[in-house]
Design a protein that fits this description.
The protein is of the alpha+beta class and 392 residues long. It folds into three domains: 8-118, Beta-Lactamase (2-Layer Sandwich), CATH 3.30.450; 159-287, Reverse transcriptase/Diguanylate cyclase domain (Alpha-Beta Plaits); 293-382, Orthogonal Bundle (Arc Repressor Mutant, subunit A). Helix content is 49%, strand content 16%. The protein has 14 helices and twelve strands. It has helices spanning 8-19, 49-57, 65-68, 98-141, 149-156, 176-188, 218-232, 251-269, 282-288, 294-308, 314-324, 329-336, 340-354, 361-373, and strands spanning 26-29, 35-38, 61-63, 77-84, 87-95, 164-171, 194-199, 202-208, 211-212, 215-216, 237-242, 275-277. The strands form three sheets. A five-stranded antiparallel β-sheet has the order 2-1-5-4-3, with helices on both faces. The protein has a five-stranded mixed β-sheet with strand order 7-8-6-11-12, with helices on both faces. A hairpin with a 2-residue loop joins strand 7 and strand 8. Helix 4 (98-141) crosses helix 5 and helix 10 (294-308) packs across helix 14. The longest helix is centred in the N-terminal third of the chain and has 44 residues, at 98-141. The chain is rod-shaped. The relative contact order is 0.07. Residues 316-371 form the PucR C-terminal helix-turn-helix domain. Residues 147-264 form the CdaR GGDEF-like domain. Belongs to the CdaR family.
């Protein structure tokens, strides 16, 4: 099936540019010999006999005044067939006596072919962009991806067998030029990444990751993200949030869900880190989107009981540090700049208030989950500025 390269708007571009250079009227005829753009608008949609001859024999047709009288819809001039990618797509006509316009013919034809090539590249880029945006939508919104994605993936040359994750880049008040530079980076230097805007100041990226020994190479990942930041700095780079890696057909859908959950969590908890990984915040991210319900109230009961008996927030601060240091007494005491015996006393106070044993796994887990669920609540004296426990 032939592709239509010579469209009306492309033909108009050819006429406008050619007539800004030469003092003669220019016509562009389609593959059927119909005038689709002209320096004389009244001739548009007319059938041009000279173009029909040029197309039929694929040759330059010169028509003088005497010959023009014998042909329908024709004036003196030169008609040159236009080919693109080995396909005869139309005819370029310059109105005037052949001896007068012959010197301009090849020059104008060359210029017209450049216009066609330029417009074809723009159109190709637009289709490429649309396909990429549609592919991103299908991959992250569907579980599992639709069958029709296979032809789209093949067209774009994307290898979905390669391990990938979803990342969100947040920007602060980017200007148009900075955004164009950032998109140029992904279009020219990172073609294996799928990128789209969900908002003026947010990009969604589906990016390949490097595996090392069967595990995600986080060292290489940080290098990649820092490279993103260097290109996005002029766009007001704020933060990049990376979802988890999940193999299988629905893996990118899950990665998207974890990236969004982590984004909601870091905004709620006012996390300041510029590089945020779901695997560092898995539990608070999973809990961040839990709706208010009796289950949430019940899971929060032990922590809220502690809060109500801790007006200065000291015990809350102590427990957070204790959890953050994996319940290690010496490390926690060192972090809090207190004696281990002081720490033991505070943990005993927590036991007395909550009526649990601090070394009982089920009870401590209940307390920890309650703390994470209530992390966005305003604590006394705002003592909750520490980073959450990492969950690997």
């Amino acid at each position: 099936m032939k592709k239509q390269y010579l469209k009306d708007y492309t033909a108009r571009q050819i006429v406008q540019r050619a007539m800004s250079i030469i003092p003669y009227s220019v016509n562009v005829m389609d593959e059927h010999g119909i005038i689709i753009a002209s320096g004389e608008p009244s001739r548009i949609h007319q059938r041009h006999e000279g173009a029909i001859l040029a197309l039929k024999d694929n040759r330059v047709v010169e028509i003088d005044s005497a010959t023009a009288i014998t042909l329908k819809g024709v004036r003196p001039g030169i008609n040159l067939p236009i080919s693109f990618h080995g396909q005869l797509i139309g005819v370029l006509g310059i109105t005037g006596e052949p001896d007068e316009v012959r010197a301009y013919a090849e020059l104008v034809k060359m210029a017209s072919e450049l216009v066609i090539e330029h417009m074809a590249l723009i159109e190709q880029k637009e289709w490429d962009k649309r396909y990429r945006e549609e592919l991103i939508h299908q991959l992250i919104m569907r579980e599992p991806p639709a069958e029709r994605l296979h032809s789209m993936v093949s067209y774009l040359g994307i290898d979905l067998q390669q391990p990938m994750v979803v990342a969100i880049i947040e920007l602060r008040q980017p200007d148009r030029e900075a955004l164009r530079n950032l998109m140029d980076y992904f279009e020219n230097r990172a073609r294996d990444h799928l990128v789209t805007f969900t908002d003026f100041n947010e990009l969604i990226i589906i990016k390949p990751i490097t595996m090392k020994g069967g595990r995600w190479d986080l060292g290489q990942e940080m290098k990649d993200l820092q490279c993103f930041k260097s290109w996005a700095s002029s766009s007001g780079f704020s933060r990049i949030i990376v979802g988890g890696h999940f193999p299988g057909e629905s893996g990118l859908h899950r990665s998207w869900q974890t990236a969004r959950a982590t984004q909601a969590m870091v905004k709620r908890q006012k996390v300041k880190d510029q590089y945020v990984f779901y695997h560092d915040y898995a539990l608070p991210a999973l809990l961040s989107d839990v709706a208010e319900s009796w289950q949430v109230q019940e899971l929060s009961r032990l922590w809220l009981q502690l809060v109500n008996h801790d007006s200065k927030g000291v015990l809350q601060q102590t427990l957070r540090a204790w959890f953050e240091h994996n319940c290690d007494l010496s490390q926690t005491a060192k972090a809090l700049h207190i004696h281990v015996n002081t720490l033991r006393y505070r943990l005993q106070r927590c036991e007395d208030i909550t009526h649990i044993k601090i070394n009982d796994m089920k009870s401590v887990l209940w307390l920890f989950i309650g703390m994470e669920l209530q992390r966005d609540a305003v604590d006394s004296h705002n003592l909750s500025a520490k980073r959450p426990t990492k969950v690997r």
